[in-house]
Amino acid sequence: EKAASQHGRIRWIDFRVPISEQGDTLHLHVVPAAKYDTGVFAYNFVKRGFKHGLRLVGTLKSEPDMNVLAIYER
Questions:
Q1: pTM for the whole thing?
Q2: Cα distance between residue 7 and residue 72, in whole Å
């Protein structure tokens, strides 16, 4: 909240997605092109993902980490 009030709207979203039963997670970094409010985008991303399933296109990095470039419904 402090960052948003000082620097304007937050333009990125980070998610941690579980990928194993041992607690490993994939860090997803999403920048929705500043067309949508961050909270609305995050809510709809999760809601549509559970309802329809999603396919993500992006670049994989170490950690594991992924910069998301495109999101498609299944």
A1: 0.69
A2: 30
